Amino acid sequence: MDIRNHYSLKGNNTFGMDVVADCYIEYDTRPELLQIIRMAGHGQLPKPLLHIGAGSNILFTQDFHGTVLRSKIKGIDRVDKAALLKVGAGEKWEDVCDFCAREGIWGIENLSIIPGEVGGAVAQNIGAYGVEIKDVIQSVEAYSLTTGEKKIFTNNECKFGYRTSVFNTQYSDWAIITATLDLSYNPKPNIEYGELKNVIAKYHHRKPEQVDIRYVTQMDIREAILEIRGAKLPDPKNLGNAGSFFKNPYVEKNVYEAIAKDFPDAPHYPQPDGREKLSAAWLIDKCGWKGAVHKGAKCYDKQPLVIVNTGNAKATDIMELAREIQVSVYNRFGVNLKPEVKYV
Ligand code: EPU
């Protein structure tokens, strides 16, 4: 276990915010986590406790007065002969995707190349190209940060929603230890997401509607996602960012209809409950924000849903730009954009 006091979190968040935590602890085992919980219970660690993963969906807005925890619990283990995999919270998500592709295990190939670790991926129910991690989660093992109680959450008990779960409420009481993924050795290519299908069609020298799904491999899917993401999303190693800054909004039908009067081509996805899901990127783009710079923050040219740190951005630069974008989208379209990124 590695305990640091007065620790800079710059290397622990992909926005690259240079904030200081009173205390920062990395732990490698369950007993170490239990020891941390006991210490916190006895007032030997600054509170509150904040559990992070790779910090790829967090904006630290100020120094953190409390203890930041990070799991280094690893492991990608077969539970039995079937494709049930138990993966450690501190495992890099992409390493799990890579393992599955090499072993011919299907189910998470559409979630390839998403930054972050297993714990964070589960907590925020990552999703891309028509798949969410909740689709393959059988159960999640977690410890209460107040009592040390261990609980196995069934998929239902995780209460997964769009980028939400019981694990990513502000100062959630639960530290994820492992997640058990219910995957499959049977090929199950899902290329319904338009852009994914188009790129794979190109690889197969076919028109999108002519792609023969039987010949679509995991490598095709991973390659295509690498191409699509590479063209749109900035690499946090070069430009600090946390992926999509806002969630795609769900609106009442009349809100969409008002937009469609002026923009019949506005992307929209009808929902079973009668509402419409809109594209935040499209709304932001239509308000003219692409490439806009505010102090050290910038609305990314290739995907306006992403806000980047151009080098020395302060958290306030990013928050101010986000606020201005929200106000302008609201004034123009009457739609409230909510941050996907968690402010701490
Ligand atoms: N668009 C524009 N202008 C642009 C870019 C996009 O109008 O410059 C519109 C287009 O209509 C496009 C639509 O936005 O069809 C959707 O764009 P994209 O396919 O990139 O998806 P997204 O809805 O913007 C979501 C997730 C991403 C995920 C992709 C792919 C959210 C908040 N974001 O983005 O997740 O990778 O779909 O499935 O749900 C993340 O959560 O950090 C993330 C990157």
From TrEMBL:
The active site is at R163, S244 (proton donor), E340. It is found in: Cytoplasm. Its cofactor is FAD. Its EC number is 1.3.1.98. It catalyses: UDP-N-acetyl-alpha-D-muramate + NADP(+) = UDP-N-acetyl-3-O-(1-carboxyvinyl)-alpha-D-glucosamine + NADPH + H(+). Pathway: Cell wall biogenesis; peptidoglycan biosynthesis. One of its GO terms (cellular component) is cytosol. Keywords: Cell cycle, Cell division, Cell shape, Cell wall biogenesis/degradation, Cytoplasm, FAD, Flavoprotein, NADP, Oxidoreductase, Peptidoglycan synthesis. GO terms for molecular function: FAD binding; UDP-N-acetylmuramate dehydrogenase activity. This is UDP-N-acetylenolpyruvoylglucosamine reductase. The gene is murB.
